[in-house]
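User: I'm putting together a small comparison set for a docking exercise, and I want a reference complex before I start. The sequence is below, and the ligand is prephenic acid. Could you produce the 3D structure with the ligand included, as structure tokens?
Assistant: Of course. I'll restate your input first, then give the structure tokens for the complex.
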Amino acid sequence: MTAIDVTGARTPEAADVITGARERIDALDDRIIGLIQERVAVSAVIQEARISSGGRRVNLSREMDVLGHYREALGKPGTALAMTLLELCRGKI
Ligand SMILES: O=C(O)C(=O)C[C@]1(C(=O)O)C=C[C@@H](O)C=C1
């Protein structure tokens, strides 16, 4: 397959732009995934400290703050993203 086929572009120039931008997106996605993995690890530290002190895994008032933070920054889809992040960090509730 040519670069044009793979990108859906109609000209070689557009295919070059898309190929370069996709490389940047792949690098950004790698960094985002790394940050998510770091968030999961930090969240686990919090949850373990709370549980071993006799508390519960989940803290809903803090989750409301996290959801609000993402919604303010990213709008309604930010809420969905934060819910997915919270599920990755503490499992399904
Ligand atoms: O901040 C906390 O108390 C956490 O446990 C972290 C965290 C999170 O990943 O943001 C995870 C579970 C809680 O329900 C609330 C928030």
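Residues 1-55 form one domain. The radius of gyration is 19 Å.
User: Thanks, that's exactly what I needed.
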